[in-house]
Amino acid sequence: MAAARTLFEKVWAEHVVAEETPDTPAVLYVDLHLIHEVTTPQAFSMLQEQGLKVRRPDLTLATMDHSTPTTPVSSFKDLAVVGESAANQIAQMEANCEEFGIELLGFDSEHRGIVHIIGPQLGATQPGKTIVCGDSHTSTHGAFGALAFGIGTTEVGHVLATQCLLQRKPKTLAINVTGQLGKGVSAKDLILAIIGQIGVDGGTGHVIEFRGEAVMAMDMDERMTICNMSIEAGARAGMIAPDEKTIAYLTDRPRAPKGADWDAAVSRWQLLKSDDGAEYDRSVSIAADRLGPMVTFGTNPGMVIGIDEPVPTDRGNPSFEKALQYMQIEMGKPISETEVDVVFVGSCTNSRLSDLKQAAELLRGHKIADGVRMLVVPGSQQIKKQAEAIGLDQVFTAAGAEWRESGCSMCLGMNGDTVARGKLSVSTSNRNFEGRQGIGARTVLASPMTAAASAIAGHVADPRRYLP
Amino acid sequence: MLTISQFESRSVVIPTRDIDTDQIMPARFLTTTSREGLGEYLFHDLRLDSEGNPVEDFVLNLPEAEGCEILVGGNNFGCGSSREHAPWALLDYGFRAVISTEIADIFRSNSLKNGLIPIVVDAETHDYLLSNPGIMLAVDVARSTLTLPDGNVVHFPIDGFARYCLVEGVDQLGFLRKQLDSIQQFEEARSWTP
């Protein structure tokens, strides 16, 4: 009988072109290469300098998301890129895709959006695939049982030229989530709690498999939120075994297999789960039913507490003290007393339709507090359209929030959507690093529900207060 | 590709733990289409104030940091974004090695592909390096050793293939392209196509 294998080991083994040896890494085949404007220009330049072609343009999909303007426009022709170098980078992306024959979902495409939103939405993200992108949040696609991870620009060049990567096999880490999440507590709160528990380096060198009752009870949007932030624990990738929800999600998506190919794919996908008795290099457990809404208080996603808790005390730890000084947050004080200037609902972590619905349900019938600016940025133009079809845009604008075009926006502030120096933002994005949302900006990471509650209250607020 | 085997330098220390690639290379400078000249953005928002003047007490602005090629960081250096601009900026600024107790996966991979040596040391050596900034250190990539001023030699882990490429000046893409026949055979033999 064959040895019991983990989900990761099954996907890895199916993509090894050449096995690793002590002297050489494995040659790993890539099934889907997603590319965007920021991390590819130098890779295309390298191809041009060496006179190389893109080996599999048909397995390469491009979009533009990072420096995309999100100011509402009536036609894509009115999208005005902020800054000359960003405009140049976008023009170069269009020229490179044209030259190398790569499909670009550009400004004129109804399918454009954040790269990690559109892959699943199109059905290009599928169980058992290897998926890479010059972007650390590529881990998102692991929610489908794909092996998906971020790479650097040199590696983007390797994949463009050969459709392969040189990789050492990572270790495996099982995270078992027991119980069920309570009302007002979401996937975002769970992944923040996990990062708080294992640390921002807790997953280094490992591929995480998220398992257990709470994970399998989640819909695909929530599973994507979980896998998205695997990298914030330092992990190489995050994965969740595909099940009937995965298959239902992919059914009839434009790029999902059709007809007999679909049936064959589903049969293959159903085998993609860790065998009973499969061994992981490490295992961690966390109880979902004990969790409340979580928020960060420091300058990395591991500095996280329950929303009703006081900020921890760690005097004499210089990194900790420096983080709190930057955040202008005091040890021992309830985090809920923190006043809010900006609320951002968006990013590849939390900009899917269900995220927008959760934020809108809380906001319905409320106004955001005086002096608070709230931006709602859907993850793709498709999500924007779906949200408008059910009137979510009206809920947001009636509450006083801004309803925008899709893109990465204020998650990293490359497109002109930034938080001003010293201002505090409650954000549904993934990183609260110093300066991430703007120079001197202070970021509190939270779920869409907590973000909406905080917008109403004008301070960091527990969403359970506002739930119907 | 350049070969990299041995070098010596004084160290400069930024003791903060979890230094992320957003601090190393802020996102707003990623609109460049070049990999050259990114040193001017290195630690930009820690190094320069809002007027663009040097922050006096930031370590890289001190006279003794001049010419230092080895950066000692707190635990878990290089976490966060996959931007290769981070090692490009460090190299352009003049750094050749980064030392910590732990170095984030993507940053380490990006560094090795560009000749920036990621050096992971034990906690005791790390404490010594953190509390003794400015000491002369010698790095030998081929032997994977870091030599301290007292003559103590610390071995550091480095992937054998990455080390071979650095020392022999082997281009990894060239190595991968030699596998193109195997890659084609793999594609033809698959039971399903992506």
How would you portray this structure in words?
- The longest helix of chain A has 17 residues, at 84-100.
- Chain A is α/β, with parallel strands linked by helices.
- In chain A, α2 (41-50) packs across α5.
- Chain A contains 15 helices and 19 strands.
- The mean pLDDT of chain A is 97.
- Chain A has 3 domains: 7-167, Aconitase, domain 3; 171-243 and 251-289, Aconitase, Domain 2; 294-465, Aconitase, domain 3 (2-Layer Sandwich), CATH 3.30.499.10.
- Chain B is globular and about 60 Å long.
- Chain B has 8 helices and 7 strands; from the N terminus they run βααβαβαβαβββααα.
- Chain B has 194 residues and is an alpha/beta fold.
- The relative contact order of chain B is 0.17.
- A 7-stranded mixed beta sheet of chain B has the order 4-3-2-1-5-6-7.
- In chain B, α3 crosses α4 (105-114).
- Helices cover 31% and strands 16% of the residues of chain B.
- The longest helix of chain B has 10 residues, at 105-114.
- Chain B has a single domain (6-189), classed as Aconitase, domain 4 (Alpha-Beta Barrel), CATH 3.20.19.
- Chain B has helices at 21-24, 44-47, 85-93, 105-114, 123-131, 160-168, 172-177, 180-189, and strands spanning 6-14, 70-73, 97-100, 117-120, 136-140, 145-147, 153-155.
- At the A-B interface, α2, α3, α5, α10 and α11 of A face α4, α6, α7 and α8 of B.
In short:
The complex is a heterodimer of chains A (468) and B (194). With 468 residues, chain A is an alpha/beta fold. Chain A contains 15 helices and 19 strands.
Features:
heterodimer; A: 468 residues; alpha/beta; Aconitase, domain 3; Aconitase, Domain 2; 3 domains; five-stranded parallel sheet; 31% helix; globular; B: 194 residues; Aconitase, domain 4; 8 helices
